[in-house]
Amino acid sequence: xxxxxxxxxxxxxxxxxxxxxxxxxxxxxxxxxxxxxxxxxxxxxxxxxxxxxxxxxxxxxxxxxxxxxxxxxxxxxxxxxxxxxxxxxxxxxxxxxxxxxxxxxxxxxxxxxxxxxxxxxxxxxxxxxxxxxxxxxxxxxxxxxxxxxxxxxxxxxxxxxxxxxxxxxxx
Amino acid sequence: xxxxxxxxxxxxxxxxxxxxxxxxxxxxxxxxxxxxxxxxxxxxxxxxxxxxxxxxxxxxxxxxxxxxxxxxxxxxxxxxxxxxxxxxxxxxxxxxxxxxxxxxxxxxxxxxxxxxxxxxxxxxxxxxxxxxxxxxxxxxxxxxxxxxxxxxxxxxxxxxxxxxxxxxxxxxxxxxxxxxxxxxxxxxxxxxxxxxxxxxxxxxxxxxxxxxxxxxxxxxxxxxxxxxxxxxxxxxxxxxxxxxxxxxxxxxxxxxxxxxxxxxxxxxxxxxxxxxxxxxxxxxxxxxxxxxxxxxxxxxxxxxxxxxxxxxxxxxxxxxxxxxxxxxxxxxxxxxxxxxxxxxxxxxxxxxxxxxxxxxxxxxxxxx
Amino acid sequence: xxxxxxxxxxxxxxxxxxxxxxxxxxxxxxxxxxxxxxxxxxxxxxxxxxxxxxxxxxxxxxxxxxxxxxxxxxxxxxxxxxxxxxxxxxxxxxxxxxxxxxxxxxxxxxxxxxxxxxxxxxxxxxxxxxxxxxxxxxxxxxxxxxxxxxxxxxxxxxxxxxxxxxxxxxxxxxxxxxxxxxxxxxx
Lengths: 171, 368, 187
Fold this sequence. Notes:
The complex is a heterotrimer.
Chain A: H1 3-15, E1 18-25, E2 28-33, H2 38-47, E3 52-61, E4 66-75, E5 80-89, E6 94-96, H3 105-116, E7 119-121, H4 147-154, H5 164-167
Chain B: E1 4-8, E2 20-26, E3 29-36, H1 44-49, H2 53-59, H3 69-83, H4 89-113, H5 115-118, H6 121-142, E4 151-152, E5 155-156, H7 164-187, H8 190-196, H9 204-210, H10 215-221, H11 227-230, H12 251-275, E6 298-306, E7 309-317, E8 325-329, H13 333-343, H14 349-358, H15 363-367
Antiparallel strand pairs in B: 1-2, 2-3, 4-5, 6-7, 7-8
Helix pairs in contact in B: 4-6, 4-12, 6-7, 7-12
Chain C: H1 2-26, E1 28-31, H2 42-46, E2 57-60, E3 68-72, H3 77-89, E4 95-99, H4 102-105, E5 127-129, H5 136-151, H6 157-163, H7 165-176
Parallel strand pairs in C: 1-2, 3-4, 4-5
């Protein structure tokens, strides 16, 4: 494993209350933190050379009743990548913006808000719709949203006189 | 002076793809602007959660239309990392060949595309004709012109057809002969120079602030920030190529970089064809039905260098037959949304389309 | 005597319509609106290798001067609002060509929450072009079909839209909710 990423994970471990670390591949590691530590850890890592926030995304763990925010950081000089993950309560998904550390996060936060319903305090535009228009259901990327049912309800399907799925059964 | 609301797109000949810029103008200076994305939003990430791993290979190229192959590469790479599959040596080299050809096609399209907003349609016609040559090669290799579904989990779908090496070499020789003509036509053209030199600047601080990658980043920071060099994937560490860099990023520099990179792509393609070993091209990922294939638990992110910058997928597997979550990082997401909001104001209306073009913005990958 | 004049009028009118159909079919202006991914093959069809202009087709920037609306691929609900807006702005006679499987039955997006499943519920389609994505040969073939359809009066989508306007409008409102978005700016 890459020496640099090892030393960085050790430094994060020493400084913050790390729940779990994971080696994903040679140049990539993952660190699980408590939500309260995320801002301090991001500022710390940015000073360590992780100058770019590649992406902020969210995973919906329906069974654990949690949202997992994933901050993907990249160090362009060393070529190493770090996943920083934190879990939020699914029933009350609120978090604070990180735009003061990584300004590029602004639209990623809007994206996560729109598709998962996680609110980011301090991000002025995050409550507005960006990709969707006149959305009338729960945020669509949540696991309990059924895309097929919504599509069938809203958009009529073409009905075929012949059932091609059965007729073309190799006979 | 009174501020006027103005729409650029989605139905506008200067716009690249189905996106819209909304702006307030004063005279012909843009005072405030926002991108209105989502016209191409298909809910792709949700759709991928409802397909099996193998089914997904068939649909993912559609996320980025001008350059679909990085999609296949990152998806396959993620699944291989999770499932611990070793890709055969020859497959790595074929993947590089495909990715470089795709990059060449995308660069040609973008390089000629700058003729649209500047009124130099000759460049567009030339570039489209040359791009068509690559599409014909793709058709022979993969069976499809645009969406190839060629890079699959475990390698590539099929070996290269016989005699394709000569055709590829003939094509790149021909293109290399024509590249000086492109320089004369576009880069030394007084009209283009007047429109682009010292215009539409991208300083290094802005690059770091927004998270711009690709040509924009390399032309502003002066360092070879290319994922192929920084964190090599496939076999990019075994071929020689240079990454053009600069510390002054105006629109002309960024257009020139596409031209310079085309030389490097041709260099890589020649080396790949020379160094490519024999052997099998696909490792069997599983025994039994591909539709029941389960990928071990894990969360992994892979990025490759697409023609516009860092293009990556974040894949989460919960051990099931379908991906639990796939998140797409479009290469032009930062400059397309935050860049338009913060740094397009101050330019003139007629530069907006050129701004969009030289920043390398591709709307389907923003919308997903 | 009166009947003779009406008869003559009718003949004259038919004759004129035949002539105008001939001219319409040979000079088609398509609206440059790339709605989906099938648009990537249009530049190839337009430029040197396939050269659409030999069919008498050319690109046109504004809907009011265009004859053909190309729905190139899938339509998200957000695009459909704009497409309806553009289609209604076009002056008759107008034609609509749909590319790929997505406007026919949803294609690979049959279960996507943001993409409609069939276009002919909302707008009348004159020609469908198959393939994902249609090759330039198929595109040219589809355009030839459209030209033939105009000549033999089968491409009459604009008449159907006029006659069944309430039905189309009902479907549009059912799927889209609101047709016009008042505040498109992010403010």
